[in-house]
Amino acid sequence: MPRQRGKLRVATWNINSVRLRLGLLKELVAALDPDVLCLQETKVPDELFPIEAPQALGFPHALFRGMKSYNGVAIFSRRPIAPCDIAPAWCAKSDCRHIAVQVDAKGGPLELHNFYVPAGGDIPDRAQNVKYAHKLDFIAETRNWFAARTGLARSVLVGDLNIAPLEHDVWSHRQLLDVVSHTPAETEGLTAWLNAGFVDAVRHFVPVDQKLYTWWSYRNRDWRLSDRGRRLDHVWVTPDLQGSLRRHVVLKDARDWPQSSDHVPVCVEIAV
DNA sequence: ATGGTTGAGCGTCAA
Questions:
Q1: Is A1 among the domain residues?
Q2: What's the CATH number where A212 sits?
Q3: Among A83, A94, A154, A183, which is most exposed with the fewest C-beta within 10 angstroms?
Q4: pLDDT tens digits for A193-248?
Q5: Cβ of residue A119 near strand B, that is under 7 Å?
């Protein structure tokens, strides 16, 4: 897929340690050739970030926000970017789950948000599980913040949102209703956030009655055979951009790369 | 109901 002027190709990937998978980033770039690459779970503090990597991969512009061991987000870009520090510290934590930039585009700058939503632990009960409570609070805060952004336009939101909102975003809707990532509180909360100002750019291309996953657990002996996947990774755009959506890729082959992440890259091309 | 695997970084915790 050669790049074209006037088109912006945005990819998102939960890389599950950027230092461990620098070689796979090269594979990703070869496969998708994105203009902008958003990463989650980089798992590295900023002072230890492999700062030469984006340049070596052909991205002269980069911004990252990380911490020791957990979380961490990064944006690599072929086009100039400017940090966009307008959002609050979600849930009053500084836990490196969000980074935003303005990206140069032909028709004017785009606002790009890269999120890593809390996974939420195992027990789907906010009284018993503070991680689940944090997850629900996080998506309520983000929803309210975007809903208050009057005139929000030319914006793209990507990331590991750790929720599979639709029935066919999971391998078994019935069996996952009480599994964190697909509980009604989460799917309703994520849908409310989406509806606060965005459309689902990947479901724009893939009908809602078709199964679609971006994550397969490490705990399955044969992920492709059992195919117990979930769609946790998302690309949203503001409605003014919906008519500019051109193509999408869920790079399922990446799940078979050596020492792969348990998430696969998702990519959308927008004519902007 | 349980266990299954991986990463960070050395304790287990988080996913």
A1: no
A2: 3.60.10.10
A3: A94
A4: 999 999 999 999 999 999 999 999 999 999 999 999 999 999 999 999 999 999 99
A5: yes
Residue A2 resides in a domain: no
**Burial, A28: exposed, middle or buried (Cβ in 10 Å; 0-12, 13-18, 19+)?**
buried
Nucleotide nearest to A131 (CA to C1'): B14
CB atoms within 10 A of CB A238: 19
Residue A121 (CA) to nucleotide B14 (C1'), in angstroms, measures 8
Structural domain contains residue A3: no
pTM of the model: 0.97
Strand residues in A136-239 grouped as ranges (E) = 155-160, 199-200, 215-216, 229-230, 233-237
Nearest residue by alpha-carbon distance to C1' of B3: A219
Number of structural domains found in chain A: 1
A226 CB less than 7 Å from any atom of strand B? no
d(CA A16, C1' B15) / Å = 10
Q: Is the CB of A179 under 7 A from strand B?
A: no
